[in-house]
């Protein structure tokens, strides 16, 4: 836990801003093209969910540097309506907006660690990590 | 009282202009105008201060301000030159009036401040409005230009059309892609449309969803949509996301997509053998030399 920076999500184009910052950081950490694309896509999903379902929130980045491993932690936080049933949204194809419903389960597969904490009426926090291999 | 203050300023315009020019010159060293030639800077300052005084004399806004601002906008001078200049005018004028007054009580002082504000603020407002109007104009023109670029459709040959997508796809653009695609397919009687996503930086579920819907719509009006230009890393993320593109024809490159399009429209590329030989002979004869 070395360095943290956030992008506020308020309008649709902020998603692109978050993606760009995430890509820059992952490039610096040393991720290859495929992992950079995975990370950018995951950020896109999380930021878009904030924009669509919570209205506003933020996406934060943290470089992880331990003795024997390096990685990137991404935290997407909002104070929106929250998710009623977390198990349900982790099923492929579940969407309340007519979307593909592949966002959250997709992010879980794109990243190495995945964690959602959500309370109805209080907000949602999605915490994911990608390790450099 | 009111006319008094204004008279002080107008009757001593030479002094005030001199002080103002000094102030402007002083600020110049460390700012944006340092690259502008001395003559241009001086003549612009003169013009600026004339505009201010003519607005004072005429008790209000004039076309001079508009014309002056327009010229500076075209020359690319920053707005801060004008706002800094107006603030300098405010300071100089207040100082000058104070220096000319024998007795200064609080009432008189606040009278001066509010009078000078009354002269300066409308000019600042008009200048800012001129500038922001021109920015809004530029932004809206660029928006139109971007929209025109956002989903182009190219009829490369009879019945085959290509839509090359470059850059980020947001909701607005996704809508345009769909509209242009359907309009274009009908207009050009395309049997096959190739959507090339080589230039799309990120394909997330939203983008994939829109592309799937567009391809489905194209299928419903009787044509075939082939997705091409899927870079290897994008192919991987699509698979990770669990998006099923198996229902749609996809090809890695535009070239391969075009070959399938030819097949679908019962055509093929034939190399002209004769010409080939000629070239080979030519090369052979060159080699011999
Ligand atoms: N930040 C969030 N706040 C509230 N609800 C959310 C949030 N993120 C996701 N959801 C809910 O989870 C569902 C599934 O999300 P996702 O997997 O990204 O698919 P999609 O966005 O296509 O619906 C959404 O339809 C929405 O109801
Ligand atoms: Mg989503």
TrEMBL record, chain A:
Annotated ranges, domain Histidine kinase/HSP90-like ATPase: 34-133
Stored SUPFAM superfamilies: ATPase domain of HSP90 chaperone/DNA topoisomerase II/histidine kinase (SSF55874)
UniProt keywords, alphabetically: Kinase, Serine/threonine-protein kinase, Transferase
Gene3D superfamilies hit by this protein: Histidine kinase-like ATPase, C-terminal domain
Pfam families listed in its UniProt record: HATPase_c
Single GO MF annotation: protein serine/threonine kinase activity
Protein name per its UniProtKB record: Serine/threonine protein kinase
From TrEMBL, chain B:
PROSITE patterns with a match to the protein in the record: STAS (PS50801)
UniProtKB keywords: Coiled coil, Phosphoprotein
GO MF: heme binding; oxygen binding
Domain named STAS: residues: 150-261
Matches recorded under InterPro entries: Bact_StressResp_Reg (IPR051932), Globin/Proto (IPR012292), RsbRA_N (IPR014792), STAS_dom (IPR002645), STAS_dom_sf (IPR036513)
Coiled-coil regions, chain positions: 262-289
One protein family per Pfam: STAS
Regions crossing the membrane: none
UniProt superkingdom: Bacteria
Lineage start: Bacteria, Bacillati, Bacillota, Bacilli, Bacillales
Protein known as: RsbR protein
SUPFAM superfamilies in alphabetical order: SpoIIaa-like
